[in-house]
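Bumping with the actual sequence this time:
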Amino acid sequence: MNKSSCCINNILEVINVLQCQAEKIDDIPNTCDRPFLGFSNNANTFVYNTRPITLYTSNNTLFEAPYTLNGTTGTSSVFRVEKVDCETATLRVLAPNPDTGSTFPYVKTDSFIIVNCNCICAIQCLSDTFIDCI
């Protein structure tokens, strides 16, 4: 495993663990290595359960994957880490929330991809959010 892959794997593993233990509340800025997920400051006070990410390949290309949601197909560059094994990660494709009145920008899909972390050169962490039915 090269150093880049090891670093990517480590970050994805931390994100996965944080999502599994999402229960703390804080006001630390949203970064990839933030020690825990935050909470939503809305009437229902959801504890965030997802740290959405985008990935970039070695040629600086934003990684995208197809999904199907409610019979409609599309592509998305936003993912949720579901599992990390050795040099691979299983990611759930997140779609833009069709409910434009929602404060949560993404919804889950039943589309998954497995990525080789050796092919990923950069991760961008987006703001923590709540994904229903995860």
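The tokens above came from a reply further down the thread. The radius of gyration is 15 Å.
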